Give the backbone structure.
Amino acid sequence: MSIVTVTAFRYAVGARFRAFANMGRWLRQPAQVPALQFGKLMGSGHSFGLVPDWSTYVFLGVWPDLNTAQQFSQSALFQQLQTGTESVSTLYLTPQRSHGLWSGQNPFHDENGTSLPVSPNLPVAVLTRATIRLRALPDFWRHVPQARQRLQQQGNQLLFGIGVGEVPIVQQCTISVWRSPAAVDQYAYRQSGHKEIVRLTRQRNWYTEELFARFGVVGAEGELFTEIANQLTDNQS
């Protein structure tokens, strides 16, 4: 079963230009990493918005197994990305279900159809990613503050959330971690506001490409994900 890593690199002020340059190099020529099945280096925005957060970049990787995923920290790419960081934090995820495309493929689709059982007590990660039509950009970004407000109203059910993207403004991705599957379902299917925005994406045809994926969280390390790691430990004891 494949493992997905989400690694957040937070840079000191003096290293942020280097981090931005890394992003440019990746867009021109993605690095080759042994056993990496799919990889994206993405910049982040403040509060899911248009203002860039020059301090934080996220690398998402898909690996054949947990052992290989953990070995990423020994790779030349990882060493390059962590230079000048104040902190490095990683989530380890197992795909539960996904639909749609990212760069023409679904990197989280398991051809064997296998997945781990969903535990009601373990955190769940959700990823959404889209390429926005140029004509739809004003309409899309006009609704982002409403979506951000809905997330901020989730209290302690939302353990982590970040807006990232490969190309600013046009290609957007959100990654969120929730305390339980029930918390995700409450937000996505029962709460007003979120459902209305999802309906708008269909009615107004905002995207040329989109993907939704849900994951089980099997590991977390680093200061950014301390609360998630604590919940995993509590459920194992």
